[in-house]
Amino acid sequence: MTTTSSQRTSDVNGRLWGARARDWAEVQEAQFGGGYDHVLASASVGPGTRLLDAGCGAGLAARRAADLGAIIAGIDAAPLLLDIARERCPDGDFREGDLEELPHADDSFDVVTGFNAFQFAANPVAALSEARRVTRPGGIVAVMTWGRPDGMEAASVVAALRPLLPAPPPGAPGPFALSDPDRLSGFVADAGLVPREVIEGDIFWAYPDEATALRGLNSSGVAIRAAGLVGEAAVSAAHAAALAPFRQPDGSFRIGARYMAVLALA
After folding, report:
1. Number of structural domains found in the chain
2. Residue 127: which pLDDT band, with cuts at 50, 70 and 90?
3. Predicted confidence band of residue 260 (pLDDT cuts 50, 70, 90)
4. Cβ–Cβ < 8 Å for 214, 240
5. What does the alpha-carbon distance between residue 95 and residue 76 come to, in Å, rounded to a whole number?
6. Which is nearest to 236 in space by CA: 205, 257, 213, 208?
7. How far apart are CA 2 and CA 77, in angstroms?
8. At a CB cut-off of 8 Å and minimum separation 6, what does 96 contact?
9. Is 25 inside a domain boundary?
10. Looking at the predicted structure, is the pLDDT value of residue 170 above 80?
11. pTM of structure
12. 24 located within any domain
């Protein structure tokens, strides 16, 4: 995967993704919860599993792993998201830092997960190589990303802010940069990992009303960036238009989405 910047991940993402940490944690983070559970089960996470969640956000995936009995650590660039992760997992070891420079010793973990994280690192292959370094030999590194966008309802919602943002530079990572099984497997192989299997699944984003949907969607780092350029009202209007086709008769919203993950051996 092409690297386009020498900046550290925290420089790029920390401020944006922490700007509305509570909104993210309370509304949007759980929309991919089914994917988290599928990956954790496929990686055989259970009692005593030493697990690092790289790009852990507000700690929902870590909480679900802890509920399975895992010993949890997490790293993220956004301090306000980490505050929530620590609330959710008081016994976890959560640290602020970069995916490209993990503050852990070699072979520290049985499983390292990255949920929609590694492809947004400033240097994705370097970040994944770090994940391999801290995983014990024979352990698992699991990389989850968006599934193939063709025919995916949520893809139209993700694309809603594109007209409000400057065109990305060539080779810049995006939400669907790894949404192909061969490319995803090639990505982990480039970091010295051995792909074991690719899993896929369908989920639904669900919101009880438009206000809640906008609260969740407007909390992403991409939305925060767009709001800084064109204003909050324009971001809300773009999201509302994208949501409209998915409104249910009771005013709620149900939007189909898809995830893909590769489980690789260190």
Report:
1. 1
2. very high
3. very high
4. yes
5. 7
6. 213
7. 21
8. 10, 14, 75, 76, 77, 78, 79, 82
9. yes
10. no
11. 0.92
12. yes
Would you say residue 138 lies in a domain?
yes
Give first-to-last CA distance, the chain, whole Å: 19
Long-range contacts of 53-56 (CB under 8 A, 24+ apart): 53/112, 53/113, 53/114, 53/115, 54/99, 54/102, 54/112, 54/113, 54/114, 54/117, 54/118, 54/127, 54/131, 55/99, 55/114, 55/115, 55/116, 55/117, 55/118, 55/120, 56/81, 56/82, 56/85, 56/94
What does the block give as tokens for 200? 């896929």
- Tokens 């970091």 identify what position? 191
pLDDT by residue (tens digit) across 214-248?
999 999 999 999 999 999 999 999 999 999 999 99
The two tokens of residue 7 are 């900046």
**Domain carrying residue 51:** 9-154+170-206+258-265
Strands 135-146 and 253-265: antiparallel
Task: Give me the residue label for tokens 């990572």.
Answer: 173
Which tens digit of pLDDT belongs to each residue from 141-161?
999 999 999 999 999 999 999
Q: Is position 175 within any domain?
A: yes
pLDDT tier for residue 2 given thresholds of 50, 70 and 90: very low
Tokens of 198: 């690719």
- Give the DSSP per-residue string, 147-165: ---TT-HHHHHHGGGGGGS
258 vs 69: CA distance, rounded Å: 27
What is the CATH classification number for the domain harbouring 125?
Answer: 3.40.50.150
Please give the Cα distance from 114 to 128 (Å, whole number): 9
